[in-house]
Amino acid sequence: MSAREKILQRLSDRSRPPAVKPSLPDPLGRSDDLIPSFAEALKAAGGVSNLLNDPMELESALARSFPEATVVLDTRQAPTTGTEFDSRRSWDLVILEGKLGVAENGAVWVEWNEHYPRSVLTLAEHLALILPKEALVATMQEAYEVLDLSSVAYGLFLAGPSKTADIEQALVIGAHGAVTLKVFLV
Amino acid sequence: MVDHARNAAAFLQNPERARWHDRALWHVRQKRDLAVKAVPEWEALRRAAEEIKGHTLQHLGYYLERFEARAQDNSIEVFWAEDAKELQQIVGKLLQEHGASKVVKSKSMLTEECGLNPYLESLGIEVTDTDLGERIVQLAEDRPSHIVLPAIHLKKEQVAEIFARKLGTDPNESDPFRLTRAARKHLRQKFLEAEAAVTGVNFALAEEGGIVICTNEGNADLGAALPDLHIACMGLEKVIPSARELGLFTRVLARSATGQAITAYTSHFLRPKPGGRLCVVIVDNGRSHLLAGRQEKLLSCIRCGACMNTCPVYRRSGGHSYETVVPGPIGSALAAANDSDKYASLPFACTLCSSCDLVCPARIDLHRQLYQERERCIRVPKYRGKRRGLKAAALFLRYPGLRRTAMGILGSLMPKLPRSWIYYRFNLWGREHEMLRPARRSFSRLYKERKQ
Q1: What's the CATH code of the domain at B223?
Q2: What is A54-113 written as a DSSP string?
Q3: Is A8 within 8 Å of B243 when comparing Cβ atoms?
Q4: How many C-beta atoms lie closer than 10 Å to residue B53's C-beta?
C-alpha cells in the first residue's frame, strides 16, 4: 500500500466533505480613513508611502525617488517580444503594479507577470509599487474576499522591504530581497 | 532520556547570558502584546482560528484529497510520505533525478524534524540554509534553539567569530548590520548557484490548490525563483480550507510571532514557474496518530513561537535544553505525546502558569496538555523515586490527623536541626530554594484559639 493510501486510510473517518464552513468574525473598529492607516502600517514595516494627488506626477515622482537607479525594469509594460531575460541579474530598481493594499499592515498584493522571471522581485535593490488609492481595504480578511486567485500562478503580499532580526534581535533592513520599498498611491 | 533540569542548569551556568536570553524573548512577547492590542477583535480571531483548525482536522482526509486534486489541476506534483525516511527518499530522489548537487533551503521545521539535511549531505548534495538565523546555526554546526528565532542563543560576538572562521570576515566586526550584509553577499552567491530549492509550507490551500510561505527575508522567494525545481515539504496539518481562512491566519501569525502586523513576504505559489517543477510532499511522521485522542489539538499549532517567548521556563533554560526540534510548551507536549519514554522530563519543565494558553493564536490548551502528559510520563522507570515520594505525600493528604501530627513534630523539630540534616541529597526542593521556616503556632491552632 502506498503512503498516500495508508495516510488516507487512517483518516477515513475524516473524509466526509463538510456541510458548512466555520464563520469568520467581522473586523471591528476600523477607521474609514484607510490611506493614513496604510501609510502608518507601511512605515512600521520599514517601507515608505508617497501619496500623489495628481496621477500625472507619477513619472517625475519615480525619477525623483530613485535618482541613482540606472538598471531599471518597469513591469507595467509587457516586455518587447524576443527579449531574453537573464534571470540571475540584479536590478537597481523594479517597478511593479500593486492590485490591492491592506491598511492594517501596509501590505500590497502583487500578481506576478510571468513574462518576467520571478527572481526579478528579489534581485531588485529597490522596489517601487504603484497602487491605486481606491484599491485599499482595511484588513486581510477583506483582501481575500476581493482577490481572485484562480488565474494567479505566483502572487504575494509585500509588506515593506526584506528584513531580519536574527542577530541579537537587532532589526536589519535588506536581508535577501529589496533594501527599500516605496509605495506610490495614485 | 532527556534530562531537562540538568540541561537547564548547564544553561544557567552563564547567568549573564541567561538573563539576556530571558529579556530578549520577553521583549518579543511585549511586541506581540502591542500588536495584539491594535486589533480590537483579537479574541474573536483566536476563537475563529481554533474553530477553523478544529474543523479542518475533523475533515482532514477530505481537505488533503481536495488539496491534492486542485494542486494537480494547477500542474503541481503531490507526493505523500509516511515518515521521515520516506520524506528523505522522495526529496533525495527528486534532487538526484534533477541532477541537483547544490540546494538552497528556506526554513522548515518539518525537514529539521525529519533529518533531511544530513541525509542529503550523505548523498553528496550541498544544502545551504538561507534563513539568516539558520545559516548562522548551520555554519556553527549547531542546532536552532527557537522555531522563529533559530540563533537567539548566540551573541553577536559569537556570530562574528563564526563568520570570520567560515566566511573570512573581520572577527572583530560584530555589528549586526555589517554581519547581515556579509551574509547577504555570501548567500546571494549560493542562491545564484543553486540547482534546486527546498522550502517549508505555512499554509496549504485546499480549494485553490496552492501553498503559502511566509518569510521576512524573502529567502523562500529568491530560492524558489531561480532553479527549475522547487520542493515544498509540509506536515499534513498545514492544510486549511481556502484563501478565505488565510485572511484570518495571516492576521494572527506574525502578530503572535514577532509583533509585526504581517511578514514582509506572504507568498502564494499556485502554479510552477514557467518551465519549472513545483513538488509538494505531504508528510505524516506520527501526526495522524495524535488525532485519535486528546492530543488532537496539538495539530492546530501554526508554529508562531509565541508560547516559547512567554514561557518562564523556556526563557530561563534555552531552546537546546529540550533536545527537540520544536522546544518550549508546544514542543514539550508534542515530544511527550510521541515518545513519553525519551521525553518524560519535558512536561515537568512547566510551572502550569498557563501563560502559553493565553498567547496561543489557535487557543491550544497547552498547560492542560502538558499536565495530562505528566500522567503518562511519571510512569517511566527513572521516576520511581518521584512516584514513591508522591505516594507518601498522598498518604499525608488523605489523613488530616496524620498530617497535623507530622507537621506538629516537624514544626518544633526543624528549627533545631542542623542545616545539613535538612538540605540533604533527597531534598530536591531544597536544592534551589530556601525551605520555609515553620511558624511557631500553626494557622489551624490560631484559628481554633480565635474561635474560642
Answers
A1: 3.40.50.10420
A2: SGGGHHHHHHHH-TT--SEEETTSPPPTTPPP-TT--EEEEEEE-SEEETTTTEEEEE--
A3: no
A4: 25
**What does chain B come to in residues?**
452
Average pLDDT estimate for A148-176: 96
Q: Looking at chain A from residue 5 to 34, which residues have their Cβ under 8 Å from any Cβ of chain B?
A: 6-8, 10-18, 21-29
- Evaluate whether residue B390 is within a structural domain: no
- Chain A residues with CB under 8 Å of B49 CB are none
Output Rg (C-alpha) for chain A, integer angstroms.
Answer: 20
Q: Which residues of A touch B85 (CB under 8 A)?
A: none
pTM: 0.95
**Chain A residues within an 8 Å CB radius of B221:** 118, 121-122, 156, 177
Q: Where among B288, B313, B332 does a domain terminate?
A: B288
Cell of A140: 486581510
Owning domain of residue B215: 17-288
Domain architecture of chain A: domains with CATH: 31-76+88-185 (3.40.50.10420)
| A164: contact with B, CB 8 A cutoff | yes
For the ranges A26-30, B236-240, B288-292, the maximum mean pLDDT occurs at B236-240
Q: Is B113 touching A (CB cutoff 8 A)? A: no
ipTM tops 0.95: yes
Q: What does pLDDT average to over chain A?
A: 94
Domain end, chosen from B288, B312, B336, is at: B288
pLDDT for residue B56 is more than 90? yes
